[in-house]
Amino acid sequence: MKYLEARDNLFGIVRDANLGIHINWQDVVGETPATESTWARVWLAHSTGEQASLSCENGMKRWRSAGTLVIQIYEPVANGRRDGYNIAQKLVDALRNYRHDNLWLRRPQMAEYGSQGNYSQTRVTAFFEYDDYGSL
User: Fold this and answer.
1) Using one digit for the tens of pLDDT, what is the confidence trace for 47-66?
2) Which residue from 17, 35, 75, 128 has the least number of CB within 10 angstroms?
């Protein structure tokens, strides 16, 4: 699996959860909603890359990449995190139920973060890992 393919698969989990809110995607120009409504920001960060096997008789090696998927959910403070908890539950369930033969998700979880201005933040994270079978 290549970097772009991993990103598309991970973002697809979020897209397919049908959250019903505005989403700002990493590396896509998007504005924060002007109205005080619930919205999310989705991004990922690769953190490690390492050789995961010795080479075979043809010289091919397996390379492992890992990182973190982050979904930040913002909602008006007056909501009392009602939207944040409901959306986080949908996302955590989707991440826990995701299956792929070469993309593994670990520790999908939700955490509350503080308020800034009129918005409070609830964050969903999952660690991901996948292998790339290098070309010859």
Assistant:
1) 876 666 655 556 667 788 89
2) 35
Q: Which residue has the tokens 């991970």?
A: 10
Q: 97-106: long-range contacts (C-beta < 8 A, 24 or more apart)?
A: 98/13, 100/9, 102/1, 102/130, 102/131, 103/1, 103/6, 103/9, 103/10, 103/128, 103/129, 103/130, 104/128, 104/129, 104/130, 105/69
Question: Above 90 in pLDDT, residue 79?
Answer: no
82 Cβ contact partners less than 8 Å away, ≥ 6 residues apart: 75
Q: Decide: helix, strand or coil at residue 125.
A: strand
pTM (2 d.p.)? 0.86
